[in-house]
Amino acid sequence: MKSKKKSTKSKKNTAKLIINSNTYQLPIHKATEGSDVINITKLFSESGYFTYDPGFTSTAACESKVTYIDGEKGILRYRGIDVSELAEKSDFIEVSNLLIYGDLPNQKQLKKYRKLIVNHTMLNEQLIKFFNGFRRDAHPMAMMVGVMGALSAFYQDSLDINDPHQRMTAARRIIAKAATIGAMSYKYSVGQPFVYPDNELSYAENFLNMCFSVPSENYKIPKIISRAMDIILILHADHEQNASTSTVRLAGSSGANPFACVAAGVASLWGPAHGGANQAALEMLETIGNKNNIDKYIEKAKDKTDEFKLMGFGHRVYKNYDPRAKILKNICKKVLAHVGVKKDPILELAIELEKRALKDSYFIQKKLYPNVDFYSGIILRAIGFPPEMFTVIFSIARTAGWTAQWTEMIDDPIQKIGRPRQLYTGNKSQKYGKIRSKKNTR
Ligand code: CMC
Questions:
Q1: Could you say which DSSP state residue 69 is in?
Q2: Looking at CB atoms within 10 Å, which of 51, 96, 123, 274 has the fewest?
């Protein structure tokens, strides 16, 4: 399409775009930290051009106050607080409150919020019957996607997205019930009876108890294990506009109910390039097997004709060590020492692989460092989880971020349905008969 309108002179805080000798002034919005953005919302109506950015590598899809990442420096903050500080001093419930409400709660608010969350840990008994419909060998993430979406059929008093009270009730239900659904997915896959939530326990303890206790004997949760679980939940709670969060926002932009939106987020998280990388990373380490094979696999990862990638390595935003991986690497050693693994060959292999990759010019030049998924699987395996549960645990933690980002989006006055445009490169108009008579080369 031809340019529609000539623009005026450049102003302060505007960018100038020249297309076919027509100049367009594009406002620049200031970020409190990180990159400012060029507002192109009027570009199409004024110029007839779309911008083209597959994978959103240079596109901010929304304004947000929830989470900040500095990928060059390896910084991650929730509502301005560094995750390392939260991992040291906070717990998952408090972090979820921080993400949703925007600031740390006082003691009274936190107590009330904890109570509101534990009020929602149980699942409707009818909903529990859903699990029986799955094959025993179903991946727990398949159950997680299905049962999360099914919540919308059971909690119909929190579906009105225009009612702030219902929105908050839905958010608390999602966070509380995610642990129960995740634990039941696990119990179903190993053929053990479901364990109901125990509201006397912390969020992390309750999840572990629902996964590992059995009716025939007591399950004592070691403090170091529940703390490790809590830290894993804190570190996975949010990560600004990643694929699954953007999926939740996009689904929500049409007015869909929050349970359906979060189920869409769980589905997006499942992929190996995203949350599924924790399972893939551990499986990769098992395939590599021993230190003698490391160089061979590093070469495979560098070979463009080979699909193999180092799982748990690289990140769209971090061009430095992922701060979450740094924390998890330390916890890994503590958890292994506690469970009595003096020398875990998989951990040793991971440390050696990291060391060699970080010395390799390919990884140095492309700034590929270990990400959160590189060490989390080793910890979760030591706690007793099979690899299929790793992404489930990621999704349980991420319910805090998804609901925080979803409520922020609904409250945003400029929010509208997400509707990307395209660069069409298909056929021009042609007659039906002409298509039929063409030789089919498919
Ligand atoms: N192993 C080997 N090469 C890699 C890797 C890797 N793990 N990651 C990126 N590269 C290369 C990639 O081939 C590309 O090379 P070139 O420029 O020659 O084409 C270059 O580095 C840039 O990578 P990219 O794929 O363009 O980067 P991206 O931002 O599109 O992808 C990523 C980021 C995380 C999907 C990718 O690094 C990857 O697939 N990593 C392995 C999977 C993984 O660990 N995912 C978890 C991400 S962190 C948790 C989460 O957010 O869910």
A1: E
A2: 51
Question: Checking phi first, is residue 340 left (phi over 0); if not, alpha (psi -120 to 50) or beta?
Answer: left
Sign of CA dihedral 324, 329, 335, 338: negative
Specify the residue for token string 């935003």. Answer: 317
Q: What's the whole-model pTM score?
A: 0.93
Give me the amino acid identity at 412: D
How many Cα atoms within 13 Å fall on the side-chain side of residue 280?
17
pLDDT on residue 5: 44
Cα–ligand 1 centroid distance for 394 (angstroms): 19
Mapping DSSP to helix (H, G, I), strand (E, B) and coil, where does residue 106 land? coil
Separation between Cα atoms, residue 440 and residue 442, nearest integer Å = 6
C-alpha–C-alpha distance, residues 257 and 217, integer Å: 40
What is d(CA 309, CA 273) in angstroms, rounded to the nearest whole number?
10
CA distance 378 to 167: 36
Report pLDDT digits (tens) over 308-335.
999 999 999 999 999 999 999 999 989 9
Q: What is the pLDDT of residue 442?
A: 64
- Which residue of the set 120, 315, 322, 344 is catalytic? 315
The ranges of the chain with pLDDT < 70 are: 1-12, 434-442
Strand (E) or helix (H) holding 159: none
Q: Is 198 annotated in the active site?
A: no
CA 381 to mean position of chain CA atoms: 20
Residue 436: what pLDDT?
62
Determine phi and psi for 8, rounding to 5 degrees: -95, -170
Considering 91, 230, 238, 373, which one is annotated as catalytic?
373
**Can 360 be counted among the known catalytic residues?**
no
pLDDT on residue 8:
44
Q: Alpha-carbon Rg of the chain, whole angstroms?
A: 24
Residues with CB under 6 A from ligand 1: 239, 242, 273-275, 277, 301, 309-316, 366, 368, 371-373
DSSP string, 384-434: T--GGGHHHHHHHHHHHHHHHHHHHHHH-TT-----------SPPS--HHH
Report the 10 Å Cβ neighbour count for 324.
Answer: 27
Between the alpha carbon of residue 236 and those of residues 30, 120, 157, 284, 422, the distances in Å are: 28, 21, 29, 21, 32
